[in-house]
Amino acid sequence: MGSDAKGGAVSHFQRVAELRAEGAAFAIAVVTWRRGPSSGRPGAKAIVHPDGTVEGWLGGACAQPSVVAAALSSLVDGQPRLLVLGEHDLRAEVTNIAMACSSEGAMEVFVEPQLPTPDLHLIGSSPMVEALGRLARALDWRVSISDDVSLENVSPDSFVVVATQGHYDEPALEAALATPARYVGLVASSKRASAVMDWLRERGVSDDRLATVHSPAGLDLGSIEHEEMAVAILAEIVSIKGMRHTQVEVAKLEEAIDPVCGMTVDVATARFSSEHGGKTYYFCAHGCKTDFDDDPESFLAS
Q1: CATH class for the domain made up of 119-241
Q2: How far apart (Å, rounded) are the C-alpha atoms in residues 255 and 65?
Q3: Measured between alpha carbons, how far is 64 from 162 in angstroms, rounded to an integer?
Q4: What is the rounded distance in angstroms from the CA atom of residue 187 to the CA atom of residue 200?
Q5: CA-to-CA distance for 20 and 198, rounded, in angstroms?
Q6: Largest Cα span, the chain
């Protein structure tokens, strides 16, 4: 899985915790069953990154490209996959992947996407801000609290709440609106919010952009205490969060079909290839290449 600063092996769980803390997207693939001979072992784990790189071990040359392709697809749609490689499984939830390699083994792999946890950026200093931070952390969200207008690492999936209690609402909201944040909320009365909007409009912020501000931030729960406002704001953010699946950009693999065994091969990482008839053919393993080179037409006849 890698190594730590002291040169020792980093455990799977430690690496997963590191990636989650970084807000990274990745998929976890676990071998849940095997039929020998197969290089994969039950319990073997790997992390598949959006660029297609793999940390860990799942199996040999035939299995890994198929698992990587499934993992990348899971990151796009957010849905897990149950793969059975080398054996036909009739369960409806299973994705069957044929393997015709010489090992004649089979294995089952569960692929689970790990999408970034939401990140919440709070500007201000108050009991409400602290309460909102605690609630969001309890949901395993990433939270940053700042008492100035500096905002870093704000993405299109980020949430920003300005709660500066009138001290510097205008520059704080201006900074928030300059980010690509998915949600920008202003904790202020309607009268105060209107004054802030007028100031920003004079500063050149467009009406379309101002219309995206949620103010007063949070669901309308009536007359509530300041700390209780944190619940209303988080409830609104959670409702918005559920409207859209986090978009993850993944590598677009150039794939080829091994003409001998029918396996999917990642062209970029394929170690075996042959030229025939002006075309390049890629193979999952040396055995397939050897069979093809001995009699290519027998594999291309169909």
Answers
A1: alpha beta
A2: 9
A3: 46
A4: 16
A5: 40
A6: 82
| Beta carbons of 78 and 115 less than 8 angstroms apart | yes
Q: How far is CA 280 from the centre of its chain?
A: 34
CA angle 238, 23, 3 (to 5 degrees): 150
DSSP state of 9: B
Q: CA–CA separation, 236 vs 230, rounded Å?
A: 10
Domain ranges of the chain: 1-116, 119-241, 254-302
| Tokens describing residue 26 | 């990745």
pLDDT in tens, 177-221: 999 999 999 999 999 999 999 999 999 999 999 999 999 999 988
- Check residue 194 and give its pLDDT: 96
Mean pLDDT of 52-72: 85
Q: 102-132, pLDDT tens digit by residue?
A: 556 788 999 999 998 899 999 999 999 999 9
Question: What span, in angstroms and rounded, lies between the C-alpha atoms of 171 and 162?
Answer: 10
Give the count of beta carbons closer than 10 Å to the beta carbon of residue 216.
18
Residue 24 token pair: 């990274």
d(CA 189, CA 175): 20
φ, ψ of residue 202 in degrees (nearest 5)? -65, -25
41 HSE (CA, 13 A, CB side): 4
